Amino acid sequence: MQLRYAFRLYPTSGQQAALGRAFGCARVVYNDAVRARREAHAQDLPYPKLGLLSRLLITEAKRRPERAWLGEVSAVVLQQALRDCERAYANFFASLKGERTGARVGEPRMKSRKDTRQSIRFTANARWSLTACGKLNLPKIGAVKVKWSRILPAAPSSVTVIKDAAGRFFASFAIDTDPAADATRMPETDRTIGIDLGLTLPQRGYPHRGAL
Fold first, then answer.
1. Which of 165, 192, 204, 210 would bridge with 116, disulfide CB 3.0–4.6 Å?
2. Least confident of 25-29, 127-131, 205-209
3. 189 or 163, which is more confident?
4. What distance in Å separates the CA atoms of residue 39 and residue 29, rounded to the nearest whole number?
């Protein structure tokens, strides 16, 4: 199970422009993946696998003049866009088969630059980090100021950068919990929850109090 902790970000004007490029590139790759699946469905062909989409829509696309700007952002952000598309289709098909609880999930749609919420995700492979002064250092974006309201209880496994409808930026850190320890106090679940537990563990916190 994952717990998420969100904090306000204050990127500089240059960092906001870099984040805008990252949002845009991730959106293009996601839409290209949706388009590839729709074309495969229309031609009654198998859906392309993730590895093939990665090669066609990222690696080879960067070599074409009309997609060369994909190289300006972290490759991990683009890979995560493909995984997000794959997960969206998996949820859609599970919903159709009645294998998914909750409200029915519709077929994945194209994303728009006018969407009120933009997001990109950085996993450990992206080599993001928290600096000694408590800033969030993101590849090809730089060290972004974070407004910390509490200490993280453990090292995050990933961070999602979000821009909301009001133009505010947030960092949502995902922390993996110990399933064995959690089993004694809550039932098993495969859902990701966003509960703010307000934990403050300065002796084990991440980042340490001196960095804030």
1. 165
2. 205-209
3. 163
4. 15
According to the model, what pLDDT value does residue 120 have? 96
Preceding amide of 207 cis, omega within 30: yes
Tokens, residue 41: 């469905």
Q: By residue range, what is the domain housing residue 75?
A: 17-96
pTM of the predicted protein model: 0.80
Domain co-membership, 83 together with 120: no
CA 210, CA 192: separation in Å to the nearest integer? 30
Supply 27's token pair. 């959106």
The structural domain count of the chain equals: 2
Average pLDDT, integer, range 66-90:
94
SS3 166: coil
Yes or no: say if 126 and 158 are a contact pair by the CB < 8 Å rule: no
Contact 175, 2 (CB under 8 A): yes
The two most distant CA atoms of the chain are separated, in Å, by: 59
Of 30, 61, 96, the position where a domain reaches its end is 96
pLDDT given for residue 178 in this prediction = 63
Instruction: Please indicate, yes or no, if residue 110 is contained in any of the structural domains.
Output: no
Which residue type occupies 51?
A: G
Q: How far apart are CA 200 and CA 188, in angstroms?
A: 25
Q: Do 83 and 128 belong together in one domain?
A: no
